[in-house]
Amino acid sequence: MNYKIIRYILGSVVCFEGCFLLLPCIVGVIYHEQVGLAYLIVSLICFLCGGLLILKKPKSLKLYTREGFLTVALSWIVLSLFGALPFIISGEISNFVDALFETVSGFTTTGASILPNVELLSQTSLFWRSFTHWIGGMGVLVFILAILPLSGAYNLNLMRAESPGPSVSKLVPKIQSTAIILYGIYIFLTLLQICLLMLNGLPLFDSLIISFGTAGTGGFGHKADSLASFSSNVQVITTLFMILFGINFNVYFLLLFKKPKQALKSEEARYYLGIIAAVTALIVWNVRPMFETFAQALKHVAFQVASIITTTGFSTTNFDQWPEFSKGLLVALMFIGACAGSTGGGIKVSRFLILFKTMKKEIQQIIHPRSIKVIRFEGKPVEHGVLRSINTYFAAYMLIFIVSLILICLNNFDLITNFTAVAATLNNVGPGLQLVGPTGHFGDFNALSKLVMIFDMLAGRLELFPLLLLIVPSSWRK
Questions:
Q1: Which parts of the chain span the membrane according to its record (predicted)?
Q2: Do 299 and 236 touch, CB atoms closer than 8 A?
Q3: Of 211, 215, 214, which is closest to residue 197 (Cα–Cα)?
């Protein structure tokens, strides 16, 4: 166990957060809000603490799988703890657990809020909440790898631990170049959405807030009704970009390097888009009588389906009032999630595809015991190690979900509220149904439930295992 490299990376993360906190300070100056001073104080604290941690560079920069997973988990916890301090210092969210819940929800791109009325927050804090989505969307350690490379191939252990999906590979030979390409695509799509929103009459501040939430598939809004009060053009643009950010960034890499045929062969992307189209059609059929026109129904349903499957969490209508069939489909989308290698949450389309192919293989094996069939995904054979990790992931996921649900049921809320609260936080979706629906909030849960959901949000964003390793004693042995 290389404790020194863990300490050094944590110091770098804290220093970078100090830089990030300067942006809301600028917003505070622009809007003449004294709240910006709280962000400046925490920024200075970050520079001091981070500077002390990176003061002495370790001799060995090697980072193996175990250190990589532990470093990522600790980095996100430290990031959230420091990120919650401005809310507490400014007094806008005085309770520590509430402030931590809001911050973790931001960084993990969940978008679940404990605030009954988000419009009471200052512009400075509204900017910070949404900017945490953008930081967490692609991953802060991926950002650091793009700027401060460590030791060659060992960087891949950090990227694998932080990136969503069953497997992560290098796009190009150098991992630093891979990180730069990923963030380049991420920044380009974000800027493109900002420009399109501004061209449709939206102010810069509103465009930034919505684009940060869309890019990170987070969903923190700055209006009480999320995006319901915005124009149809804004809603359609946001729908499109939510879907785009839910696609594996490898597809964009192939398009960028003029390999459209390979990009179009992406099995996961095709199923992802197919699921969106199929569920949208079913829900439109089911809710059509609730809207004046077919076009209006299609617009709201397409927005909500895109928002839920990409785990963004924006809303343009109260889908908690839709028929049970439609709500059931939306809950199913919470679990499916977006593509691996995107900024979306959930279990991921790729895992379900491989799982179904495994089931199909087992059924055929029973019918034809002597047949030999290889499971293929994206045109390549799926290795046994990948199948084993997916099976283990599903087992761990179910265990965490069941334990979390039992603990949250101590609040004595209705089962739909409790079930969808766990589903929304573990899958990084944001809103659920009933008390935690699009017009509700998570503030009524007790401190224990909020801590459980904080764990769930972090576990969901980091694909379970980095956070589970923290509580396994043998992980820390030399």
A1: 7-31, 37-55, 67-89, 134-156, 177-199, 236-257, 269-287, 329-354, 394-413, 451-472
A2: yes
A3: 211
Under a CB-based contact definition with an 8 Å cutoff, are residues 453 and 408 in contact? yes
Question: What is the pTM (predicted TM-score) of this model?
Answer: 0.91
Which amino acid, 423? A
Q: What's residue 155's pLDDT?
A: 56
Which amino acid is present at 7? R
CA Rg value for the chain = 22
At 154 the pLDDT is: 46
Residue whose entry in the numeric block shows the structure tokens 């009471």? 120
- Mark the binding-site residues, compressed into ranges: 109-110, 218, 311-312, 428-429
Annotated binding site for K(+): 109-110, 218, 311-312, 428-429
pLDDT along the chain (478 residues), means of 10: 82 92 95 94 95 82 75 90 95 94 94 92 95 87 64 53 54 62 89 96 95 92 90 95 92 83 85 96 96 94 96 92 95 92 88 90 84 79 83 92 96 94 94 91 94 95 86 75
At 117, phi and psi to the nearest 5? Answer: -140, 100
End-to-end CA distance of the chain: 5
